[in-house]
Amino acid sequence: xxxxxxxxxxxxxxxxxxxxxxxxxxxxxxxxxxxxxxxxxxxxxxxxxxxxxxxxxxxxxxxxxxxxxxxxxxxxxxxxxxxxxxxxxxxxxxxxxxx
Length: 99
Prior knowledge:
Elements: H1 13-25, H2 30-55, H3 61-68, H4 72-77, H5 90-97
Helix pairs in contact: 1-2, 2-3
């Protein structure tokens, strides 16, 4: 079993009510729903951050995929959704081919 850590946070009661309603609609208990929402939300934040870094030319596409924890193939498939254009030159290829 993996180690777990308990965290606490303050949320407006209206947010908690909305999240509890969503959890109930999905047939989940609050804790399970909150964990799922946190995982999905943090993955989207990382994806947006990595996409922005790629857009600004700060990282290669493969590095952006690595940052987000998705495969390069998956990131390429989502480029339209993220409003990204392929910027891939010889230097990028050489970097990606290095072990």
